[in-house]
Amino acid sequence: MTAAKIEKQHTHNGGHHHHHDVSSMSDSKIKLSIILTSLFVVVEIVVGLRSHSLALISDAGHNFTDALALALSWYALWIARKPANPDKTFGYHRVGILAALINAISLVLIAIYILKEATVLFFHPQHVDSLPMIIVAGAALVMNTVIALGLRGEAAHSVNMRGAFLHMAGDALAAGSVVITGVIIYFTHWWIADPLISTLIGLFIIYSSWGMVTETVNILMEGTPRGLDVDQLAVQMQSISGVLEVHDLHVWSIRDGMNALSCHLRINELELKRSGEILRAVKGMLASEYSVNHSTIETECGGCEDAELYCVMTPRTGGCNNDH
Length: 324
Known about the structure:
Blueprint: E1 8-10, H1 27-51, H2 54-79, H3 94-123, H4 130-155, H5 159-188, H6 193-220, H7 230-238, E2 243-255, E3 258-267, H8 275-290, E4 292-300, E5 312-313, E6 320-321
Parallel strand pairs: 3-4
Antiparallel strand pairs: 1-4, 2-3, 5-6
């Protein structure tokens, strides 16, 4: 490859991001939510054991993961404020992704436990004291609904907060289901309603959590950001005047809403004097249309033989192997 000019440019346009995270809520609100949720865990377990209600105990388990989710999300947003350093050159934004993954996995594990216990009760139903069950679950419904509404705005912009929101919204639904179960048992004495509703709660938890698992794993695996068409992105880059070819292209997320890109651009030799202008046009398009505000672009006037859009990195050299 002959390169008349190599130019690397990095952009950190933080102004393009709107971080509607837990930081926009006061610490006192977050801490209060954690305290209230934790207290409800204790109340629901005690009442659930005394009333022999698996649905109420299941809701207590879900509430426990809610408290964990809020605590992890608060911690992740707190540590994400720390600046980048020689050990963490991208900062601590990935902590929020890890917190979201832990939250999602904990939900799946809780759901599996609920389904296991519900299966036992289908074959060995127990008497359920429905009145305490209705009262406690009703209070939990109100509490979780209020907290979920408080997190809804932040959840739209952060996978970390989306994990916490799913916990609270899911538990509000679970608490409502427990109330319905209690009412059914109170009027009909149909004990099988307890494991039946518990099974539905468990299946819903798995359904709502699985997307979070796949999304966070994709980010940690440096996968393409959700909803971004890389082939179309490359076509648009090559459509900019002066750009002949794009290769060795990588697009990934540092965290949700914070996309990064690196690539090689082959520029027309007659346009070398305009290389700075061409790069600014490419970066402007990436930021405005693909939310890529951190990019490292290397320009060259020659061409790699058999250069491919996506390079194959080899463990031996750490570089791209384009010899096919």
